[in-house]
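Annotated sample (chain length 371).
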Amino acid sequence: MKRILLLYISNNSGHHRATMAIEEALYSLSPEIKVMNINCFNYTNPMLEKVINSVYNKVIKIKPEVWEYLYDNPKIVRRSKKLRRLIHKFNSKKLKKLIYNFKPEAIACSQAFPCGMVADFKKTYALDIPLVGVLTDYYPHSYWMYDNINGYVVPSEQAKKRLVDNGVEKDKVFVYGIPISPTFSNNHDKEFILKSLHLEPDVPTILIMGGGQGLGPIEDLVFAVNTIEKPFQIIIICGTNKKLKKWLEKRKTLFKKKMAILGYTKQINILMDIADLLVTKPGGLTTAEALTKSLPVVIVNPIPGQEAKNTEFLLSEGVAVRARNTLDAAILIEDLLNTTGKLNKMKKAALKHAKPQSAVDTAKLLLNLVQ
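Output written by the structure step:
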């Protein structure tokens, strides 16, 4: 029986959704396979996970420019090398137990930290287990660069070029896309879904998302878009942000537009099918899902670092427009709703970059490595 280990960090994250998509694809291709899908931070050092998540969230909220400075800064990458190796060594006891007990024949990581930890582990213990780095953003930062990674799954030719320019062998880089659930290949009855949400079938629908945690200026955004005169309706996904959901539900009657307010949901594929426009922070998974559904994007409040790089990619490919603030977002939305030619052009551009088979292709790569 083939055994594959998948490692991610942070539950309810894009990294986790990517490994879940790969796991789903692996079982569809090889039902007898054994897959272990683990939050690497939580497994090796739960206290460190809490500290890092807490610090990261505070930095992003209070001092985003600090994260912008740290992200892919060659000086920081170089200076933090010893610290990273020390953390890897500290966590290696549990990782060793996991690998020796489960005996994986291939390992895939959807985030650079566990990928680096396994790469160092392989070197220390002279292990020959195939290791694949699966990128979940459109820019491969320097923390992904390790000699003994056997393959990289990347979302675009630009990402491949950056890895190759940094010394990775060309035939080790596979442009399969960010792994998203195979369910995104399915289409749904738009009218039926809209009716189930008590929305109109013949009115443009705007989908507002703030990632799995419902981040971003969603309250201000809802007020801003309600100033638009043109008829449309709104679906808001609050993720795990219960405070936001409660706030919106309490004020629902104040808004002119029809709204469906949802919490954390696994039905993103269905909701993207019925939307005409997506307003969001450009997380890698959300971006890949939107491209697959040919959904134009209005970008609001991208996080410095990974989301800023995703924004650059989307703007360069004509898939998105970027709002400077929530009022600017309302102006851009109104313009797109009034200019169907522009909206259709963005839809076509999105479809050019759609990779609905990304998880299946990644799963096939892993299965080939264990043969």
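Annotation: The chain has two domains: 3-180+356-369, 186-352.
Annotation: Residues 81-102 form the longest helix (22 residues).
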